[in-house]
Amino acid sequence: MKLDELIEYLKYKDLINFKNVEISGISYNSNTTKKGDIFVCLVGEHTDGHEYAQKAIDKGAVALLVEKEVKGVNIPQVQVNSTRHQIADIADRFYSSPSKGINLIGVTGTNGKTTVTHLIQKIIEENGEKCALIGTLGYKLSSDSEYRNAKHTTPQAPELQATLRMIKDIEKIDNVAMEVSSHALEQNRVGGCRFNGAVFTNLTQDHLDYHITMDNYFKAKALLFQRLGEGDFAVINFDDEYSERFLSSINPEVRKFTYGVKRDADVMAKNISFSPNGAEFTLVYNNSEYPVNLHLNGMFSVYNVLAAITAAIAMGIDINLSLKALQNIHGVAGRFEVVNKKPLVIVDYAHTPDGLENVLKAAREITPENGKLICLFGCGGDRDATKRPKMGAIAEKLADRIIITSDNPRSENPQQIITDIIAGLKSVSTENVTVEPDRAEAISMLKTISNNNDVVVVAGKGHEDYQILKDKTIHFDDREEVRKVFAQSVI
Hints:
Elements: H1 3-6, E1 14-16, E2 25-27, E3 37-40, H2 53-59, E4 63-66, E5 77-79, H3 83-94, E6 103-108, H4 113-126, E7 132-135, E8 138-140, H5 157-170, E9 175-179, H6 182-186, E10 197-200, H7 208-211, H8 214-226, E11 233-237, H9 243-249, E12 255-260, E13 267-275, E14 278-285, E15 288-293, H10 299-314, H11 319-326, E16 337-340, E17 344-348, H12 353-365, E18 373-377, H13 387-398, E19 401-404, H14 414-422, E20 433-435, H15 439-444, H16 446-449, E21 455-459, E22 466-468, E23 473-475, H17 478-485
Parallel strand pairs: 2-3, 3-4, 4-5, 6-9, 6-10, 7-9, 10-11, 11-12, 12-13, 17-21, 18-19, 18-21, 19-20
Antiparallel strand pairs: 1-5, 7-8, 13-14, 14-15, 16-17, 22-23
Helix pairs in contact: 3-5, 4-10, 4-11, 10-11, 12-13, 13-14
């Protein structure tokens, strides 16, 4: 593609050294820049891509997208207000707007995004159509295929647009369910994406190290719904305290659907009960009732299922077909995943106050009267520190015993993170609270702390198979560690 074609609809401030060169790719990392690329000088929290422009040129870059002129180079420079936002515009243009030919469903919220996208994928497949998925675990072309790696919940714009183009043209898939994070919306990683529908799960405290306030966090999430137009649909959790604000932010011509348990929503669940085998409830829609039996557990799973079914209704899929698809699902990797039976050990990604509370409440529902509920968790470093004491208080309130350990400490001192968690506790009695910074050692302690009738929640990392330390990233998988400890137990 020629440079003038690439920037035809771009709002740029200036063209420097303009020459209509051929562009064969888009890069924003000088280490991976290839011959013929336009190099995008991203400005981040810790690095400035303008400083790596010459390195990118040495690797073969033939043009630059900049916020300020890079002196001393003679290749074309396209100057814009924000390279971080406008990389999406050139990525969409370069890959010829692939989302316009796809039924693209975006799912956003603090918790539940991964599960809801998987449920939507299964429903669409049950309806006889192909559906790809993009999210935290990577991307996959069908519910039965393997995940392919992704760096973020929502990839950077060039990778995202390239993936959508591949899904559409090479794999011949016309449906995509995609997790859309608040960072991706704020940074315009999904710029150019044409969403046919959007689903809101919930909004609770997370990422305030980035968004600073809950109001900013809400505004970032709301951007997804403000993209919708005539004929598109929005699915909203009516029980969430932000539901009315989301509904009011949606264009009038967008079709709106609500779901919930507590309020009078379009799609509701009643007569909810839980057992070690899963959840049961009655689905109410359009004055009709449908019995639902799930292998999934916990109230959060009920909400996730309601979100997926409501999205399916919005897409015109028969409700009985949706229920058939969902009742065969046994869960998503690292989401309330049972990895041992005696004691019952559950690994979950819960890393927010609300997420931890939901998981512990679900675990309590299936804890025998003669058993205790044990929670092992930590908090991530270089992230919102205000949630640490809150998570400590929640664990202390809902579990009979807690083990506080490291999560991904990153550049922070693990002991300081633990101290922040302990600040939320009313008591630090050694009978109820154990502190062990080494996560592997903490998990090994479960062998002596727990009995066969107990339920153990190992929270925070879920599907992750790594641990980010100050100076390195190591292989670490909670599920593997638990299985080592209880190697003789029958799953």
